[in-house]
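User: quick one, fold this
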Amino acid sequence: HTRYWRDWSSDVCSSDLPDATFLPIRVLDSEGLGTTETAAAGIVAAVNGGCQVITLAFGTSLQSQAMNSAIQYATQSGVIVIAAAGNLGELGCFYPASNAATIAVGASDHLDQFDPVSNWCENLDVCAPGSMLLASNAPDPAASIIGPVPGSLGTSDYKAGRGTSFAVGFTAGIAALVRAQHPDWPGKGVEPQQIPGLIEARLEDAVSTTEVTLPHRAGTRPRVTAKGAVVVGPKAPAPGDINVDGCVDAADLGLLLAAWQQPLDATTLNLVDLDGSAEVGPADLGLLLSLWSNDCP
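Assistant:
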């Protein structure tokens, strides 16, 4: 049971888009520690729960067969697994980012330069914002990552942070936007196990990125951008547009009723599950009726 660390963010999976649903699965204790066996169980639960993107914002120096098997199960199911490279500012990505099946993410700053807090390795796939700039001994909000942190008595606050966990969050959001453009996957010649590679290729596409230079002549990596990643793909369907014809009408209602309280396929986006509850019921019907198009042809 390898113990591992993580920094600010928790494991969060994003499901149906453009209305994203988040499934938080806690695998660490209040000190940010846990075991790879627990994390592996969390990955499997996320896949079975219908997640399309999984973030792993933690790391360890030792590999785990249980985690490797869980990551393989995820990617073979068409789920994108994104992992943080680590925050020691040295050569060598922490595990599970060192697993080639994940999208390993390093941190860059507001100038698209590699942030010195970030680890790097040959297996590093992309960079994303994860830096903090101090101005007059305080974080510059225009050049720092600002995010929510837990407060006392269940309250929350926003503070500046730094690290590859933040970069993972940015990358996961962009990956989810790209995944939302393809509700027909798997299908039309695309198998579930091909989906993670297709998403990674879009994140790394030269049209959508700026190159970030790694330390010690280790080459460059693309810095992901949301606008660039989605501009080369089709338009994602609007909420309620289950048959993806640009309209919310009786055809979509028929598809929703056909899936009423039926098991959902975890490998698809399940556009019939409008409220992200993992089942189709009255709440989804209410949402579809509220989105009804009155100007359909």
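User: anything notable?
Assistant: The first strand starts at residue 3 and ends at 6.
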